[in-house]
Specification:
Blueprint lengths: L1 H21 L3 E5 L6 E5 H23 L1 H36 L1
Antiparallel strand pairs: 1-2
C-alpha cells in the first residue's frame, strides 16, 4: 500500500513542480467589494487555493467521521466492561468449583 501511495505521489509532485515553474508570471488579484489588490505569481495563487480547499475537505471529512468515532469509542467501552464482567464471573465460578470440590 505504501509503494502504491509513493508511486502515485511522484507524478502528482512532478506535475505540481512543473505547474509552479511554468506559471511564474505575476498577476494582480483583487476581491470585490474590497479595494485591495495583491500581485502574486499565478502558480502561488492557484496552489494556495488548492491547499486551502484540501484543508477544508479534510476538516469536512473529519467532521463527518465524528459519529463513527463516537460509536467506536462506545463499543470499545462496552467491550472493556463486558470483559471485566466475564473475568469476574469466571473468578466466581472458579471459587464455587473450589468450594464444591473441598
Amino acid at each position: 500500500m505504501k509503494l502504491l501511495h509513493f508511486l502515485l505521489s511522484i507524478p502528482v509532485l512532478l506535475l505540481t513542480i512543473s505547474f509552479a515553474v511554468s506559471n511564474g508570471r505575476e498577476m494582480p488579484f483583487s476581491l470585490w467589494p474590497f479595494p485591495f489588490e495583491v500581485v502574486l505569481p499565478v502558480s502561488f495563487a492557484v496552489l494556495a487555493m488548492a491547499l486551502l480547499f484540501f484543508i477544508i475537505g479534510g476538516a469536512y471529512g473529519w467532521a463527518l467521521s465524528i459519529p463513527v468515532r463516537n460509536d467506536r469509542f462506545q463499543q470499545a467501552k462496552k467491550i472493556r466492561d463486558l470483559t471485566k464482567k466475564v473475568a469476574e464471573l469466571e473468578a466466581a465460578a472458579e471459587k464455587k468449583d473450589e468450594k464444591e470440590n473441598a
